[in-house]
Amino acid sequence: MVNADGVGGALPGDALSRPVALRDDATVQARAWPDARLLRVNGAGQVRLIDGQLLLESAADYCSQPPTHAVLLGVVGTVHQWAVRDEFLTEAPTESVGIEFGDLRSHGALLESVDAERYLTAQALLMWQDESHFCAKDGAPMTITSGGWTRVCTACGREEYPRTDPAIICLVHDGADRVLLARHAAWPARNFSTLAGFVEAGESLESCVAREIAEEVGLVVSDVAYVGSQPWPFPRSLMLGFHAVADPREPLIFSDGEICEAVWCSRAEVKEALAAGDWASSVDAPVLLPGKVSIARRMLEAWVRTAS
C-alpha cells in the first residue's frame, strides 16, 4: 500500500490471488498440479534466481502431487503457485544454467512485485512450518493441512496458524529540517537507519513507538503518525512505519544497549546520503543508509521530498 506521503510497503504485492477455499480443496489442487509452478527454498531461506528474478519450476517435474510439506502460496492467473524446502523433494534437484542464490536482503530490491510476494509468503510459511512440529498445548505431533496454512494436533485437534510479529519502525524528526539516524551496536561503522522494535503483548502501536524511542535513544516523542507497512520475513515480521517528533536539544541516552550511535542530520545531509548509495556501497561517505528493499529508505526518501 502507498499512503499520501508516498510511503508504502517497499515490496507491494497484489498480483498473487489468495483464495482461501482453495487451500482445503485437495481435488482442485491435484488437478491443477501438472501446470503448477514451484518455488524451491533451501535451508538458509535462499531462492534460485535467473537474471535477478525468481526461478519458478514445473511442479510436475519433481513429484506427481503436492508434497505434504509444500505450501500453496496462491494463484497467478489460473496457475497455482507452490513453495517447498529442497529437503522435502523426493527427486534430486537439478540446477539450471545461470542460476544464482539470493534472499530478500541481497536481491529483494530487484524483484518484481509478484515475485516479492511469492518469496515473502514462502519464507514466512516455511519458517513457521520449521518451528511448529508439536502442539503447544500437549506436545503431540501436528499434521499439515490447508495447503500448508494450518497445523492440527493429532491428540487434541487444536489448530495453529502462521504467526506474524508486528514491529514498529519510526522516522524521528524535529518537525522541521532534521531527522534522527541511529546505528545498531552490531552494524558496521557508517551504517545508519531509522529506529525500530517489536510490539509487546497488550501494547498499542503508538505506545510501542514511544517506548522504543525512549529505550533506544532516551527521547520523548509526540505527533506519532502511521505512514505505511512492509512484510519483513526475518523471521516473519510486519514492519509498521511511523513518523514522530522529538526535540533535538534533548540528550541522547542509549540505555538498552541496542543503539551505540545516533546523529541528527539535515534534509540536505540525508539527501546526500541517499545519493551516495546504501549499506552495500563502498563509497567513502560519513553516513550510509539502508537499501531500496527497506521501508526505512522509503520513509527517508519521502521525508526528503517533503518541504519543511
UniProtKB/TrEMBL annotation:
Cofactor or coenzyme needed: Mg(2+); Zn(2+)
SUPFAM superfamilies: Nudix
Coiled coil: none
Alphabetized CDD domains for the sequence: NUDIX_NADH_pyrophosphatase_Nudt13 (cd03429)
Family from the record: Belongs to the Nudix hydrolase family. NudC subfamily.
Provenance organism: Rhodococcus pyridinivorans
Reaction(s) catalysed (UniProt annotation): a 5'-end NAD(+)-phospho-ribonucleoside in mRNA + H2O = a 5'-end phospho-adenosine-phospho-ribonucleoside in mRNA + beta-nicotinamide D-ribonucleotide + 2 H(+)
PANTHER family hit by this protein: NAD-CAPPED RNA HYDROLASE NUDT12, NUDIX HYDROLASE, NUDC SUBFAMILY
GO molecular function: metal ion binding; NADH pyrophosphatase activity
Keyword field contains Manganese: yes
Name the record gives this protein: NAD(+) diphosphatase
InterPro entries according to UniProt: NAD-cap_RNA_hydrolase_NudC, NudC-like_C, NUDIX_hydrolase-like_dom_sf, NUDIX_hydrolase_CS, NUDIX_hydrolase_dom, Znr_NADH_PPase
Top-level taxonomy: Bacteria, Bacillati, Actinomycetota, Actinomycetes, Mycobacteriales
GO biological process: NAD+ catabolic process; NADP+ catabolic process
Gene: nudC
Residue ranges occupied by any Nudix hydrolase domain in the UniProt entry: 162-287
Keywords attached to this entry: Hydrolase, Magnesium, Manganese, Metal-binding, NAD
EC numbers on record: 3.6.1.22
GO cellular component terms attached to this protein's record: cytosol
